[in-house]
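pinned: reference chain
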Amino acid sequence: MTHQHTPGPWDISQVDENNAAEIGGYVATVHWVKIESGQRLEDDSEAAANANLIAAAPDLLVALEDVLNMVEEPEGPYYHGARRALAKARGY
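pinned: its structure tokens
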């Protein structure tokens, strides 16, 4: 299957605009600021969890495709939820 997203692996790095080109650019930026309050997070764990989830996205996509290809009886809420997540990842 051909993907149009930036191929993985995706890694987590702390960068700024000046050194982004040195590491090959970036796919996403996770800010350590809550949008609604404009204040820096006291605990960086939420931002780190978001960065980890984004970095895992290419691997999660491949794993989900593989699992769905192995399903013999495509029924039930888990299967349909997985299909919806895959469609969302593909932009449908």
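why pinned: The helical segments are 45-70, 77-90. The radius of gyration is 17 Å.
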